[in-house]
Amino acid sequence: MDIVIRSAVAFIILWLITRAVGPSxxxxxxxxxxxxxxxxxxxxQQGVTQGDYSVAGAVMAVGTMAxxxxxxxxxxxxxxxxxxxxxxxxxxxxxxxxxDLKAMxxxxxxxxxxxxxxxxxxxxxxxEIDMAVLEPNGKISFFAMDQxxxxxxxxxxxxx
Length: 160
Hints:
Blueprint: H1 2-21, H2 23-27, H3 31-49, H4 55-78, H5 80-87, E1 91-95, E2 98-99, H6 101-106, H7 111-120, E3 129-134, E4 140-144
Antiparallel strand pairs: 1-2, 1-3, 3-4
Pfam family, one: DUF421
Transmembrane segments: 53-75
Organism: Arthrobacter livingstonensis
């Protein structure tokens, strides 16, 4: 039963760390950040199992983490306001071709990161972009200046 309690505590701590790190860091990890997260996972495993290398101990630890993950997903679906707290909300980081430096600083996103993502989507400079949104998963959505749709939702295809 100790493993279940330690797994629950580790889950909460890992969730807090990922929220503190922010979506801009989690979107694309550098080699160092990837190694850092792997090392943290190993350290958490040692704290959770505390020398219990049995299959039952591993199943209990993984099962607890999986149960918390499924429970959190269900809670996010059931209570949308909780989802905004747990997962975060999209942030507009560029509007009308002008980067919002305050929002970018708050999200710890550099202009080089924004421009690199924009080039990856085929944009040459900010003036071609109507809006850029940093999504909760760390990806950046871009909307071109010439798009007529004012909503962010994809348009439905016309019946043919």
